[in-house]
Amino acid sequence: MYNLVGERWSLIAGRIPGRTAEEIEKYWNSRYSTIAANLIQSNVDTRDHQFILGVTNSNLEGKSLATLLAEAMSAGKTGAELQAIEDNRLSMAQLKTFSDCVIDAIKNLNISEAEKGRK
Q1: Of 28, 61, 89, 104, which is least surrounded by CB within 10 A?
Q2: How do beta strands 54-55 and 95-96 pair?
Q3: Rounded Cα gap, residues 14 and 111, in angstroms
């Protein structure tokens, strides 16, 4: 609703029974200023970047692993069943580091070995 009316707290409060414009504004500001602060302060250590894995299977489309697992849990699956779903998805994703992707791309170039060494 905020996307539709912006900071018109009284309009938003009018749609939520029992809430005042001040309560809505206070909730919004406390909730979303915290989220914004968390986005600004990243806990990703740049020394870890070389170890971060990415999906290299461009044919892998559809639902994310998190969505698949959430749906499986909602359907009552646990333990080994959830692990099998995760293992299957990860094997299909063909995870690699960026460095490994670069090495693979160079190996797949149609150039001489001497030229590959210079790349």
Answers
A1: 61
A2: antiparallel
A3: 68
